Amino acid sequence: ARRKLSSIRKVSAETRDGAQIELLANIELPEHVDMARESGAAGIGLFRSEFMFLGRDTLPSEDEQYEAYRRVAEAMKGAPVTVRTMDLGADKSPRWLSHGVADNPALGLTGIRLCLAEPLMFRAQLRALLRASLHGRIRIMFPMLNALPELKQALAQLAYAKEELRDEGIAFADRIEIGAMIEIPSAALVVGSFLKQVDFVSIGTNDLIQYTLAVDRNDDAVSHLYDPVHPAVLKLIAHTIKTTHRAGKTVAVCGEMAGDARMTRLLLGMGLRRFSMDPVHVLPIKQVVRNTHLDDVVPVVGRMLRTEDPDKIADLLDQLNAEPA
Ligand code: PEP
Ligand code: MG
């Protein structure tokens, strides 16, 4: 099976009825760029930049970050490199950050909240990204947004970073695609309000499931309740995809759901055309895509979205996956 999968590395991710699907890779460190390149992915859909900030005693400088982003951008040779700004807090708290330990870290100062609370740290990253984008196709996306004002504040920091660079005579690429992560239910429900401000959105299903269902994504005691096909989760994902496409913008899923072959036809049937996943999943997912007829899956997914009965959803999911990939 391995030999057979590797034979589709170079062919496009296209459904049987000819829809082009974009499969991208998730990476955590600059040195993972080789895995992304070898995976058969068309680019990087999620670079979890905060991993560069962990396991060290000091904050990486703007120049150090610039070198790292530049290396990734160059290695990808013009293919997209989607860098998520640091998503620290919650489960990832570096030694050099001293915001105290909250009772409820998952509901505390994480993601964009922490970036906005530490504007100098945030702007150093944005400046590094703007400079590195001269060397490749970098996209920037903001994690853990909750509502439009946060997005506007993040964009104001980006505008400020550009202004600083201009004043200092430092070169950067002005036109850079900006995205919003949709991983809090409130953001999914108001995604329409984000779309004028951004070029794309990316659904972080790992957190979206956690926050929708109030189930800790890392707690084994409740892992049986962590359900990617809970009807409430499906409604939020479907709403996000539909609203974004209606506005003429691009939407991806970059949580684990995107790399789960059992979810591929479901997401395709919801209209998703961009998936970002761990590099090891790219070929298996490409295989499913190439063995899927959108005409077959769309009506079944329509029924999945109209019911709130988990048993019925489970049956319909089996039906979607009955024909092997
Ligand atoms: C997500 O929440 O789905 C996501 C992609 O981000 P992370 O897993 O890094 O929180
Ligand atoms: Mg997340």
What is this entry, summarized?
This protein is α/β, with parallel strands linked by helices and 325 residues long.
Describe the structure.
The chain is an alpha/beta fold and 325 residues long. The chain is 44% helix and 12% strand. It has 14 helices and 8 strands. Strands 1-2-3-4-5-6-7-8 form an 8-stranded parallel β-barrel, surrounded by 4 helices. The longest helix is centred in the middle third of the chain and has 21 residues, at 148-168. The radius of gyration is 20 Å and the shape is globular. The mean pLDDT is 95. Residues 143, 183, 204, 206-207 line the site of magnesium ion (MG). Residues 46, 48, 87, 183, 204-207, 254-255 line the site of phosphoenolpyruvate. Keywords: Cytoplasm, Kinase, Magnesium, Metal-binding, Phosphotransferase system, Sugar transport, Transferase, Transport. It comes from Crenobacter oryzisoli.
Task: Note the main sheet.
Answer: 8 strands, parallel, barrel
Helix percent reads 40-55%
Q: Main sheet: which strands, in order across?
A: 1-2-3-4-5-6-7-8
CA-based gyration radius: 20 Å
Distance between the termini: 12 Å
The best one-word shape is globular
| Continuous helix count | 14
Number of strands: 8
- β-strand percent reads 5-15%
The average pLDDT is: 95
Could you list the spans in which at least 5 consecutive residues all have pLDDT below 50? none
Bound molecules: phosphoenolpyruvate, magnesium ion
